[in-house]
Amino acid sequence: MFSITHFSKANTLVTFSALLSLVLLSLQVFAQQTPYEEPFFSMVNHKEPMQQGDNSHRAKRIEAISETLLGAKYEDGSLGEGAHGVYDTDPLIRFDVFDCTTYVEAVVAGAMSQSKATFEKNLKQLRYKNGQVEFIYRNHFPSLDWIPNNQDKLTDITHLVAPDDVQLAQATIDKPSWYKNMKANRLKCESEHSLSCKQRLAQLQQEGRHFQPENSTIAYVPLSAIYLKEDKLKESKSKEGESKDVNGNSINHRILDRIPSGSVISMVRPNWNIKKWIGTNMNVSHQSIAIRKGNRLYLRHASQTHKHVIDEDFITYFSKYLDNSSLKGFNVLVLKDRQY
């Protein structure tokens, strides 16, 4: 017979075991937390009184929020629709790794928010068309999806930055072909050769039927307007605002000075010819945040080259793409007043 004494001892052991498990689980969760999340939300929650149209406040807020993520690791394709996602079950929100766009999204959503709850809501609105969290509604292509679908939050000021030099990039974004080119590694199956993985991949590839190839345009400041050649120098000979970079290129600071700190900078490659690899051409290859430190302009971004979030001198960064590069310029967006 099982006595009351035996039951009490057993119950005590079960209770102790349960408590120990909870403690160990808590320690494990704490160990997995990143050093970025707490300071990030500390800045998100920090709200100062401001006036409508106070651009300096907007810039300082974005500068402070983006700075908390400096050093975070770069990892491409690290975010998805969460555990209940049909195709991409990577976390919806994480702070240990970013790619270029998810870093920009985190910073912009943070600047728009007052708490963790509003951050999640705003992040969904930025990343997905109408905030609908599904793979097919994710803003995959900056010039076709991300920028047009966020016009209510962000204003394109490229034409104000370089009114006499702005150009348009055009590309046909072929989403049906892009979906058809999806590979099993996109799904992160336990076994890419399993029947279930093959079925999910076939289903994902068929999602392209919801779309048609679409023409996409994006305004950009050409690098030729920043790094001036002899003919441009002669045209602006009587004007101030040029200097030399480390490579001896003449720099047009009049344009750079019009880029507000905290702007979203998208690197533009007009009709970027990568269809044979991913199924479609594109217009945008990278995204970042413009940051001013004193009189110098920097790009704060999740760098694939450096493998973490880093600040790079704006002039030095783009000077690498002057010779025989498909990168021709950059687009400039600013957060609208009512969004923060």
How large, in whole angstroms, is the Cα Rg? 24 Å
* Percent of residues in β-strands: 15-25%
Tally the structural domains: 2
CATH class descriptor of the largest domain = Mainly Beta
Approximately how much helix is present in the residues?
A: 25-40%
- Average pLDDT, all residues: 87
Strand count, sense and barrel status of the largest sheet are: 8 strands, antiparallel
- Which secondary-structure class do the elements indicate? alpha+beta
Figure out the total of helices. Answer: 13
How many β-strand stretches? Answer: 13
Shape verdict: globular
Query: CATH superfamily of the largest domain, called what?
Result: putative xylanase like domain
CATH architecture of the largest domain: Roll
Query: What is the name of the CATH topology of the largest domain?
Result: putative xylanase like fold
Secondary-structure element order, as H and E?
HHHEEHHHEHEHHEEHEEHEHEEEHE
User: Which residue ranges are poorly predicted, with pLDDT under 50 across at least 5 consecutive positions?
Assistant: 1-15, 20-31
Distance separating the two termini: 68 Å
